[in-house]
Structure formats: C-alpha cells, structure tokens
Amino acid sequence: MHAPAWQLAARIRKGELSPVAVVDAYIARIEAVNPRLNALVAERFDDARREARAAEAQARVSVDRDALPPLLGVPCTVKEFLGVKGLPQTAGILRRKGVRAERDATVVKRLREAGAIVLGVSNVPEGKMWMETYNPIYGRTSNPWDTTRTSGGSSGGEAALVAAAASPFGIGSDIAGSIRIPAAMCGVIGHKPSDLLGPNTGHWPGGAGDAERMLSTGVLGRCVRDVELVLERIAWPDGESAAIRTLPPVEPALAAGDLRGVRVVPIVSNGRVRVAPVMRQAVERATAALAARGAEVVELDDATWRRLFGKSLATWLAGLSAAGDQASFAQLIGGDDRIALIPEVWRILRGKPRFAAATLGLVAIERFTSIKFLAFEQRALSAALPVAELQAGLDEVLGPRGVILHPPYSRPAPKHTHPLLTPFDAVLTALFSVAGMPGTAVPVGFDAHHLPVGVRSAPRRPAFGGWVPASI
Questions:
Q1: How far apart are CA 270 and CA 253, in angstroms?
Q2: Together in a domain, 143 and 266
Q3: Which structural domain range is residue 56 located in?
Q4: Do 31 and 162 have their domain in common?
Q5: What positions carry a catalytic annotation?
C-alpha cells in the first residue's frame, strides 16, 4: 500500500502487478480508514474495477510494454471541486446538493488518457474559502495522524487520503495554500504549479482574470517523483482555460541532487504572523540539508525583508481584491437568497447548520467591511506592495536559480476549529500565490506530538518547475 505511484505504474507495465489487485487493495484501504477520516465523499468503485480489468487486458496483449500509457492501472482520487463525470460537484454548498459533474475536468480527462483510474472524489470546505475541510453536506475531514485535528484545506480530503495510504496520489487545487497547507499538515508532498500552468477547466467554483491566474490545479503525493510524473501528464494549455505555460525541461543535475549554483533563501517569518519554533527549526534543517548538497544560502537583510514581507497581509488582501469574482462570497454560498447571519448562527447552536461557522464568519467580514469600514479597508490596502513590485523584488532575491524556504503554516495541524482564532495565518503561503509563484510543501519531520512538520519552497516563476530537490 505504501509503494509510490511511479513504482506501481512501472510494475504494472512490466506485468509484475495486476491493476485489478492494485485497485482492489486501495478500495479495501479506503473502506478501512474512511469511516474515521471522512475524506472520500463519493466513490465509483464498480466503474474503477471495470477499468482495472480493461487495463489488465490491455497490458496482457501489448507487444510493446514501454508504449503502454504511463499511469496504466494506477488508482487516484480527485478533489470534489474538479469535475469527475457522474460524481457530485457541490463544492460543499448546501444549495448545490445533488449537482453532479456533466463532464470530466481537463486534468481528469488527461489522467484517464494516461491510464489512471479514479476511485472517487474527496471532501472540501464550503465554497473553497477556508483552510479547514468541513461543509454541511459531507461533514468534517480529520487528520490521519490525529483525528482530533484538521487535515487542512481546501484540499484536505485529498491530503488525508494520500497520507493514510488510501490513494497513491491526488489532484487538488490551490489559490491561497489549498494544496500546500493540507499537504504540510498531513505529511505528504503537495505542489501548486506556476500561475497559468495547470488548466482549471471543469473546476467549480471557477474564476476569471486575476482569479484564474491565482488558481492552480496541482498534485499531492507521497514522493517528489510521483508529483513530477503526474504533473507532466496534466499541465499544459487546453485551449479552454487561461493556461498558457508549459513545463520547463528537467535539469539532470538537479534531478540527481547536485545543487551547485542553486540559491536558497530561508525566511522563517512573514509579517505579523506568529510562527511556532518547530516550524522555524524545520526551515533551518531543510536549509542545512540543501547547503550540504552544494546550494548557496543567502540571508535577507532587514530592509529587504520589510519591503517584501513586512506587509504580507495587506498585499494578500489587495491581491484578493483584484482577483475578486463578480459575485460575492455570500452570493456564491447562498445564491439569490440573502444569508441572515443571526438565525444561521442559532441553527448552528441547535445542531442544524446550513452553513459552516467559518463560512458565516467570512460572510460577516465581507458584509462588515463593505458597508461599515470601506474607507478603513482602502487605507489598509493602499499600504500593500503592488504585485509587480513584489514579483520584481522576489526575482531579484532569487536570481535565475533560487528558491525560498518558508513555513507553509504557522504551526503543525491544529485542533478542529482552532484556526478560527487565527484566521490570517494562511497568509504565510498565500502571499506567494499573489506573485504567481509555484510552491511545494515537503515533510521534514515531526513535532513533540508526532504531527508532521513541513517546509514550503517557492522558486522564481517559472524556474525549473518549482521542485524542491529530493535531498530535503
């Protein structure tokens, strides 16, 4: 169950593994762990078994096994935001209960063409805008390492499944840390591609303009090689979305772990967010590991840090404001019906919620700032560093082959609902989405409570694909 996806694919092509046996094993694993995790919310096990039998027959009659599809017979799971034809695509929004995808998202279609077998779709937060995976349709997803804690969000269902060995790899999406944060909390690899690399066609909620640029469809896996393998199969323009980039060629020296000529810039804090010591120490350990492979370590001076990171929250809010869809968050969740906040809070207290508490909080903030404190909000946003200046400053710091190492979140996985007390901690990762940079969360150890601790890399866009060398 712990074999990486690339190895499963290779052994299936060689005839050493049966796709039917592999799919059956992962279905059994899901059935064993999902009652505790609530990570997979809709399955297609019968169809997956039929596809596995077809893959086995295809491999059996092939005269050139090297010509077989690269992911033939390898199972996977997909975040519920992305369409899998015939399966629910509610985004966790109660008014969309019963909505099913009419077609596969582009990335799902490409996975199928590569031979992968989708087992089902995974849980999400209500309407994409929170970093805990809970909604009033499917309920809450728990962390495999400690079920009293969050798996993160919004790709928290995917991260939990991959971490629990219930899926070899998963497809997620990320606009503010939605792949990187849950990957770090669950102890797996999570990669958000560069802006406009992975096509978002078939993703709901969608976006246009800056929102489309900031949203990236990416991959979660248990090793870097798996993430690379899958990204190569899904990331190129599709003619429907705004995606225009293609993956740069792999550098052999980097792939072999030779980091000479690579600049590493460690940053252990960001604006006013309080970062736990264990997260700072993780960045320091990762920096030392890369330096041991030949990388050059560059520390930022105080003036540069203040200019680029001292007002991260304002810069992130300004980026969100520029990327805002025409519809408000309240309209996304409630449709044409205005959400009455006090009655909905009362429904939560009575145990009959129609919206998540975090959702109501976001609606309240949206309504409060737009009506009461518009002038204050504008003053705050005016302090933000313009995106073009942020990008130019980061490019200067990184040079042609540099990478920032940074905490993906302020601490390891918190208890359920505790992130409500620190709603802006996600800015640690979200800031880099504003700049359109790729990012990879990589586990580097555990804390005193045996919870995964990770670091997040952000290379210059679109430099060498955004990979963190496996030497970490």
A1: 32
A2: no
A3: 5-247
A4: yes
A5: 79, 154, 178
